[in-house]
Protein: MarR family transcriptional regulator
Amino acid sequence: MNASRGAADRHPIGYWLKLVDRLIDQSFDAVLGSAAVTPRHWQILNLLEDGPATYAQIDDEAALYLAPHMPTVRPVVDDLCSRGWAAPVGPDRVALTETGVKALSDIQSRVVADRQRVTEGITDDEYRATVEVLARMATNLGWREERDMGPV
Structure:
């Protein structure tokens, strides 16, 4: 019996879900940290990749992540501007700069490499099957796509 099979038998699915979730978060945070950005920076950079956006549009995109102590991501946008990665393009819009496009591309490469490491040794069919099983379990527990709770 291989070692991972024995470990799989010793712990229920909730254990593995929480462990993998925590490890993915830690790995992703380390990737972003190596680029000196937070998940909010990453989210805003990706949004601005599609073109200029207003502060309201950026806040709408980040709404699920906002907290009472941070009701807007304006400070994060301002930080991107101070780095030269974004710049105002009107009274209420910002866009990526050439430097920001390069920074985003670098971070995207790091994220892709991290995701490849996470799925190393897992076939596309295995990955798809795992996601499908998790989606069915979520549905069994009351999740419905039309009322997607977003990240939890």
